[in-house]
């Protein structure tokens, strides 16, 4: 079974591409919003406030919106959130010098980010057979890597052809187009929430094993957030061909290759065991960053850390879907998005002051700490990462 056979399945390319287009808009936000505000004369204090407001709003809103999807369906949530998130970007674009409107737009766009990512993952079991789910999750993870490759490129194109504020208009357009393509597809329209009586207020978090599993992405996020800031400082101290963007590109490409290989392997190892192995790989790669090697060695570490990241996420997708209690799957995937983003923000925030003190080795060690936390979570919860159906068979 090849990846092409997955993409040729009815509706797969449409929902995957629609989700990708919508997610592309959100991937642009970290670059587009600061550039547009800076061009309008904003200082870095306000830019940081806006960026933080967007990130925090998205982190809070994602699981709430995911829970609503689990109750009322996908289309009834995707359409209004898509329109309101786009309106948030437009609000910033039309008044980039008005602080009140900019903050309102950032909170609106962040809190009402369309849940395309969790919605797509909920659809996969109905789009492909059980024996194809691993490849489907690998395709999904690969698409996510491409989002972060093409997002900054779209912003760069907007800057080259138009003004920085045009990237915000592009985000609004991509959000609407992506949501429209996804929400009008038959699988999204047909998907109905599971009827569950006496829903628990904790939702998917009432499953102790799943709660531990969802903590692992925090450590992964810390490692990634640290790396994103670290390479900028590293490129200022060493002669790196292509600078920090080249290092991050190597990391993303290795991640893409890793997950494509992952999806082609006929796994005999249980997903819970796989994530432990991948966590060890991440710990080795991110732990070695503390040595701050030469540019050639750093390039090698970019490949090593990236190689295990996307396969880890792909394995997590499947395991989360298996562990989530009935009627909570969308919210469970939304928690993954939120906690990974929260970890990334934490890593970036903590490593900055350390780099200001010119301690590159200590700053790089933060990435290893994040990877270690991830390994600890998947190790502590290992015995609880058993789907209910497997427990019943045992």
From TrEMBL:
SUPFAM superfamilies: MFS general substrate transporter. The keyword Ribosomal protein does not apply. The keyword Transmembrane helix applies. The chain crosses the membrane at residues 12-33, 45-65, 77-95, 145-163, 209-234, 240-263, 275-292, 298-320, 332-351, 363-385. One of its GO terms (cellular component) is plasma membrane. It is found in: Cell membrane. Residues 11-391 form the Major facilitator superfamily (MFS) profile domain. Keywords: Membrane, Transmembrane, Transmembrane helix. It is a multi-pass membrane protein. InterPro entries: MFS (IPR011701), MFS_dom (IPR020846), MFS_trans_sf (IPR036259). It comes from the Bacteria. Signal peptide: none annotated. GO terms for molecular function: transmembrane transporter activity. This is MFS transporter. It comes from Nocardia interforma ATCC 21072.
């Amino acid at each position: 079974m090849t990846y092409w056979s997955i993409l040729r399945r009815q509706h797969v390319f449409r929902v995957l591409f629609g989700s990708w287009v919508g997610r592309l808009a959100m991937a642009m936000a970290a670059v587009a919003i600061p550039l547009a505000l800076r061009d309008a004369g904003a200082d870095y204090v306000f830019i940081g406030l806006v960026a933080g407001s967007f990130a925090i709003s998205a982190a809070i809103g994602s699981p709430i919106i995911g829970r609503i999807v689990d109750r009322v369906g996908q289309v009834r949530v995707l359409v209004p959130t898509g329109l309101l998130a786009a309106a948030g970007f437009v609000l910033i674009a039309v008044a980039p010098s008005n602080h009140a409107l900019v903050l309102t737009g950032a909170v609106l766009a962040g809190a009402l980010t369309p849940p395309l990512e969790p919605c797509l993952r909920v659809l996969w079991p109905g789009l492909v057979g059980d024996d194809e789910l691993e490849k489907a999750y690998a395709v999904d993870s690969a698409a996510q890597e491409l989002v972060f490759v093409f997002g900054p490129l779209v912003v760069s194109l907007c800057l080259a052809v138009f003004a920085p504020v045009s990237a915000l208009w592009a985000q609004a357009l991509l959000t609407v187009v992506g949501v429209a393509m996804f929400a009008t597809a038959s699988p999204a329209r047909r998907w109905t929430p599971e009827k569950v009586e006496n829903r628990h207020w904790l939702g998917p978090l009432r499953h102790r094993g799943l709660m531990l599993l969802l903590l692992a992405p925090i450590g992964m996020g810390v490692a990634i957030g640290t790396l994103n800031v670290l390479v900028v400082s590293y490129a200022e101290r060493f002669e790196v061909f292509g600078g920090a963007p080249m290092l991050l590109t190597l990391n993303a490409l290795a991640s893409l290759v890793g997950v494509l290989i992952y999806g082609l392997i006929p796994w005999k190892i249980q997903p819970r065991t796989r994530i432990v192995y991948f966590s060890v790989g991440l710990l080795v790669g991110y732990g070695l960053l503390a040595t701050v090697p030469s540019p050639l060695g750093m390039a090698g570490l970019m490949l090593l850390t990236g190689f295990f990241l996307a396969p880890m996420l792909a394995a997590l997708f499947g395991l989360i879907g298996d562990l989530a209690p009935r009627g909570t799957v969308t919210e469970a995937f939304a928690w993954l998005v939120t906690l990974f983003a929260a970890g990334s923000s934490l890593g970036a925030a903590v490593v900055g002051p350390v780099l200001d003190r010119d301690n590159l080795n200590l700053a790089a060690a933060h990435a290893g700490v994040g990877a270690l936390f991830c390994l600890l979570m998947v190790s502590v919860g290992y015995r609880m990462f058993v789907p209910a159906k497997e427990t019943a068979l045992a």
